[in-house]
Amino acid sequence: MRGLVFGRDGATALRDDVEFRAPEPERDEVVVSIKAAGLCHSDLSVIDRTIPFPPPVVLGHEGAGVVEAVGEGVTLVDVGDTVVLSTLGNCGHCRFCADGHPTICRSTFGAASMRRPFTVGGEKAFQFANTSVFVDATRVKETQAIKVDPAIPMAQASLIGCGVITGVGAVLNRARVRAGDSVAVFGIGGIGLNVIQGAVLAGATTIIAVDANPAKATLAREFGATDFVDASAGDAVAETKDKTGGDGVDHAFECVGHPGVLRNCIDVLAPGGQAIILGVPKMGTEAQIPVSEMYQDKSILACRYGTSSPQRDVPRLASLYMAGKLKLDELVTATYPLTEFDAAVQDMRAGKLARGVFEF
Q1: Average pLDDT taken over every residue of the chain
Q2: Which of 84, 107, 260, 273 is deepest in the core (most CB within 10 A)?
Q3: Can you tell me the mean pLDDT for 61-66?
């Protein structure tokens, strides 16, 4: 198969010698032929070593496709189904899964999640984020392949499995934003835009987008932001608070992965407000917290993968799109063949993309 591989030499290359280690899917596994895959900052974080993932690894984790083969015991999908892929790979049996919290299942962390279903040039290769979608086909647990309406275009469907479920889920599942609440979103990339539209779905009445790139103001407003703060032009904290009459916001979402931005999120909170961490910083990064201010009943919440339950949330998000209530078409700024990976990365780094999508 053809796949994008981050190798031991630190180089990223499109290779045509990617193979499955075993010819058939194991019990409870499915093989999915990839049709579309979104480019996410987490993929670049492997390449720049923000995420110290061991090579060789087949990259990509935000994808959609068609079920090509099923292993013994598979009941959730059939060959030919259109599916969105989830990155979780949770066990489905532990106390966290039983309680409806698959994002903290221990099988999704550390060594338990380090699967190597591929070979590259005969060498075992890792699967990134339990998924790997920058490849012609991937192999995942059946719980990770979630059936959706085939009427949803593949490019749009691919985004549900990471950027959309993470951003919207953070609002609805983790922060539990209520109608009438105020929200600030720091970092208006793919995740931030989905936080904005999640806040719209929740009924927030003040949604302030904050970014150092003023060109993102138009897109932020298209997704539902009521205000925009240019963080490059002055005191973003003061300006954000000014837009709430000086009170601060009920919820501030950190979508950058920078400790200084997290501090900004805390500083813009009203008493009783909460800061939600979504951005992925470099491993070992620490942040300074103003402890005395936290006694105003402020809180900091980390949020992984939208605190979601993919078997519930992916179909719900797909239905919202089909009903015209969730913006997916607007997220797909550009599509590329996988051979133009470098061009897509360049466009992303230049801030030109809400999401770039590779089509197969």
Answers
A1: 96
A2: 84
A3: 98
